[in-house]
């Protein structure tokens, strides 16, 4: 069977799929009908997976597509926790937390949109010597935005009557990259 979306935004991926309905039972609750979907990648790039849905009318390809879309949301939350501190705020009231989390998610969106303007499909991901990345990540996005802010703003606030002492551009960029992409 061919599915409309798969990992890595791959369209039209051919998978081996088995699906049917069953009853899901947990002690203390009545049995609930579910649709199960078993998936095997004929290319062997991913381990076989099982998906479940309580909507037994859904087609197996739809269940898989919904899971793949959900994964993008999970990655977004993981990135906002790791880089922007979502769920690590130190406020004392629920109202403060309710204000801060949406603001941080908005910041994530702004950084992502700005990075789309700064980075292109030919941009090289920043990687340490021991870890080579092939795709751009949020670390690259936030680093490119920091670099644009810091390098673009470095001479804006100097007093007008002082002798300028310019940092050579290559050194300035190296220093800013070290700060922007520090692990």
Largest sheet: 3 strands, antiparallel
Are there runs of 5+ residues with pLDDT below 50, and where?
none
Order of helix and strand elements from N to C terminus: EEEEEHHHH
Termini Cα gap: 42 Å
Secondary structure tally: strands: 5
The radius of gyration computed from the alpha-carbon positions, rounded to a whole number of angstroms, is 24 Å
Shape: elongated
> Helix proportion of residues, in percent?
40-55%
The number of distinct structural domains comes to 2
Strand line-up across the major sheet: 3-4-5
Tally of DSSP helical segments:
4
How large is the share of residues in beta strands? 5-15%
- The structural class is alpha+beta
Protein name: Transposase IS4-like domain-containing protein
Keywords:
single chain; 183 residues; alpha+beta; 2 domains; three-stranded antiparallel sheet; two-stranded antiparallel sheet; 5 strands; 43% helix; elongated
Sum this structure up briefly.
With 183 residues, the protein is α+β, with helices and mostly antiparallel strands. The protein is built from 4 helices and 5 strands; from the N terminus they run βββββαααα.
Question: Your description of this structure?
Answer:
The protein is about 45% helix and about 15% strand. The chain has about 180 residues and is α+β, with helices and mostly antiparallel strands. It folds into two domains: about 1-75, no CATH class; about 95-155 and about 165-180, no CATH class. The strands form two sheets. It has a three-stranded antiparallel beta sheet with strand order 3-4-5, covered by helices on one side. Strand 4 and strand 5 form a beta hairpin. Helix 2 packs across helix 3 (about 140-155) and helix 3 crosses helix 4 (about 170-180). The longest helix is centred in the middle third of the chain and has 25 residues, at about 60-85. It comes from Jannaschia seosinensis. This is Transposase IS4-like domain-containing protein.
């Amino acid at each position: 069977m061919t599915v409309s979306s798969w990992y890595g935004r791959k369209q039209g991926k051919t998978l081996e799929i088995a699906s049917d309905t069953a009853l899901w039972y947990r002690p203390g609750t009545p049995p609930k009908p579910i649709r199960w979907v078993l998936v095997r990648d004929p290319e062997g790039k991913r381990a076989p997976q099982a998906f479940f849905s309580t909507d037994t009318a859904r087609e197996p390809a739809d269940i898989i597509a919904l899971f793949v879309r959900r994964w993008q949301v999970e990655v977004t939350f993981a990135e906002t926790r790791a880089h922007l501190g979502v769920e690590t705020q130190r406020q004392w009231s629920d109202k403060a937390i309710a204000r801060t989390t949406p603001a941080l998610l908005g910041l994530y969106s702004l950084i992502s949109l700005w990075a789309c303007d700064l980075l292109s499909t030919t941009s090289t991901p920043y990687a340490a010597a021991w870890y080579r990345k092939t795709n751009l990540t949020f670390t690259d996005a936030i680093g490119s935005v920091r670099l644009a802010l810091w390098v673009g703003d470095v001479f804006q606030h100097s007093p007008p009557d002082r002798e300028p002492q310019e940092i050579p551009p290559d050194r300035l960029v190296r220093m800013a990259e070290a700060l922007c992409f520090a692990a």
